[in-house]
Protein 1
Amino acid sequence: MADAEEWIEWDVARARDWIAVPRSDDDKYSRGVLGVITGSHDYPGAAVLGVEAAMRTGVGMVRYTGPRAVAGAVLARRPEVVTISGRVQAWLLGSGMNPARRTLVLSGELSQAIGEGHPIVLDAGALDLVGETHGAAVITPHYRELAALLGGRKGPTVEEVAENPGEWAIRAAEALGATVLLKGAVTHIAQPDGIRLTVSSSPGWLATAGTGDVLGGVLGALLATHHEVLKYDPSKLAPLSATAALLHGLAARRASGGGPIAALDVAQAIPATIAALLARSEG
Ligand SMILES: NC(=O)C1=CN([C@@H]2O[C@H](COP(=O)(O)OP(=O)(O)OC[C@H]3O[C@@H](n4cnc5c(N)ncnc54)[C@H](O)[C@@H]3O)[C@@H](O)[C@H]2O)[C@@H](O)CC1
Ligand SMILES: Nc1ncnc2c1ncn2[C@@H]1O[C@H](COP(=O)(O)OP(=O)(O)O)[C@@H](O)[C@H]1O
């Protein structure tokens, strides 16, 4: 079992260094374009939540090329989003998708996105594609999803993952060769190179539908805005993932003020959370 002392708790002081503040010579392309293929007929809201969160985290552009039927809902919420194919510098794939219902066309589009070799977040219905990635890839399962991903006779049960999430995050990172962000009351980030980070400060109010989709958007935006460094140093995925989880928890706390929240509230609280974090205040 992992030694608890090997885990580093991520904090505001560390996270500040992983927010890309636009410079005077930046434009939308230099800041980074996030490509997004998420959502489905069954879960269109997951795409809306992830895109909203990415825009609120700060990114040059979001290019949404998921199912046409979902694009309307995304555009209704965020007309800034571009829905034609084109150049991207990072991808967010899978939130609100069901791999059992993946069409041939969608399979091709997902494979093509992965094949580009850009930094990539694989969430929910794209977790099974982790073996196809090359380059910087982070998966964002919760306990049930990680148990399913490590399935087969040697895989853990959901209860085993829940009892020892850090250990299973490490094992998954080693077995899958990817950065693992394992969601839960404590979020564990493990990387094959041995980096192990936790985020323990999120309020329990975050345990509500759609907040995982919001986290995917936050992380996607951080990858897009750090695409240059990730090209030559994929190990930076771990601090970026921990920063995403910390921001997510801080935004939830800010939106909550001690009371209940909905997922969209968390996304909407992100800009003020980032501003406070950059100003070195409480975040
Ligand atoms: N507004 C939206 O569009 C939302 C979409 N979501 C998407 O929904 C998909 C499934 O995510 P989940 O986290 O639910 O996947 P899980 O693997 O946790 O659950 C899969 C299914 O198992 C059943 N189930 C599991 N645990 C259960 C329990 N304790 N009680 C009752 N039923 C249970 C539910 O039918 C659930 O849909 C993902 O693609 C995710 O991105 C969710 O994020 C919720 C919000
Ligand atoms: N008890 C809890 N305390 C704090 N955060 C939690 C708790 N339970 C879940 N979370 C966080 O809420 C989010 C839920 O994500 P996920 O399980 O993917 O939900 P969904 O699929 O509905 O979006 C994750 O970021 C997770 O870390």
Protein 2
Amino acid sequence: MSHILFTPDAVATTLERIRAATPLVHNITNIVAANSTANALLALGASPAMVSAEEEVESFAAMAAALVVNIGTITAPQAAAIARATRAAQAAGTPWILDPVAVGALPFRARVAVESLAHAPRAIRGNASEILALAHLREGHAEPPPAGRGVDSLQAAEQALHAAGRLARATGASIVISGATDYITDGTRIATVANGHTMMTRVTALGCTATALAGACLAVEPDATAACAHAMVLIGVAGERAARHAAGPGSLQVRLLDELYHLDRDTVTREARIAILAP
Ligand SMILES: Nc1ncnc2c1ncn2[C@@H]1O[C@H](COP(=O)(O)OP(=O)(O)O)[C@@H](O)[C@H]1O
Ligand SMILES: Cc1ncsc1CCOP(=O)(O)O
Ligand SMILES: [Mg+2]
């Protein structure tokens, strides 16, 4: 029974596997998130590399343990690199995850994101507005996607659950909708993670960081829905613990790295709030 994967113990096992394997995580990411996501991956125990040149991404995606694709500050050269990297990842069997930052607001990145879906992402993580928009864009509706307002969500995570199920069934990817409660679905199973702190929405690139940590989890856990749920617990528990003593977003950002570094089996099993709703 796969429910055993949706327990605090299973999250702790994924954490220990990351620490044991130090998976190489290839990131093609945005200029806002690059430094903070690399630091978060290092703090957790993975080995990040930011490699975006079209000439380099194919061989690197094939040798990496996971690929993270983030369109937050997409440019035409980066779009070409994403096409090559995701094709190479698919061919090599490297699990890859998409973060469709602000996909509802801007047609160029919408095209990049939708085209990338042909290369079999193992997972997609976005906020509710992004998941609603990506599902809508993939379905080719004539009217524009539901309004987004840049990189932040205008909807609660619950509002994107139906769209996430459709997107998961159509693409084969597990979908994460982050928010006060995170939802993770493969179109059949729905897991929830209730860790996290509202102050996390006041630090940039923490959604990007969640996606990057999911890349590390995908490198060691073959069930993508479980891997993504585990990542949301890890960042959520670290975020909660960091917020407890943070003076504001500045110290939260720094403390989050320290908390990721100090996470261990005891803390995770005590503080994880992970559940499986269906089937
Ligand atoms: N209201 C909230 N309460 C607690 N945690 C939250 C809340 N909103 C977001 N988070 C957490 O903050 C992190 C970033 O998520 P989110 O803000 O939804 O992504 P994005 O930055 O891409 O919009 C995730 O770990 C998520 O679980
Ligand atoms: C502010 C900003 N602008 C373009 S990408 C980016 C970072 C978005 O990060 P996140 O979605 O994790 O908050
Ligand atoms: Mg985001």
